[in-house]
Amino acid sequence: MAEDRSIIGESRAGSAARSVTSFAVDDEPLARRQIAMLLEQLPWVHHLGEASDGVAAMQAIDTLRPDVLLLDIEMPELSGLQLAERLTYAPAVIFTT
């Protein structure tokens, strides 16, 4: 059997393929801006948006259904860990701090 060497952003045929969607949650505006700037540099990532707190993020995540969630651990009201436990939709989570 042939080895699968496809990578994210490139199909097996070598043409542009699917992208990974992302969403960021952080109470610090500068951190959200930095995350968005870094993600913009990756042509295979489609950044869906951001939220400044866990409560607002819950609804957005369930609606947008991102593949990857960049999530601050320490936030007021609802921490990143609490948010991750309560999500009904479960994207891959990358904790940031």
Task: Indicate the topology.
Blueprint: E1 20-25, H1 29-40, E2 45-51, H2 54-64, E3 68-72, H3 80-86, E4 92-96
Parallel strand pairs: 1-2, 1-3, 3-4
Helix pairs in contact: 2-3
Task: Please explain how this structure is put together.
This protein is of the alpha/beta class. Helices cover 31% and strands 24% of the residues. It has three helices and four strands. A four-stranded parallel β-sheet has the order 2-1-3-4, sandwiched between helices. The longest helix has 12 residues, at 29-40. The N and C termini lie far apart (43 Å).
List keywords for this structure.
97 residues; single chain; four-stranded parallel β-sheet; disordered N terminus; alpha/beta
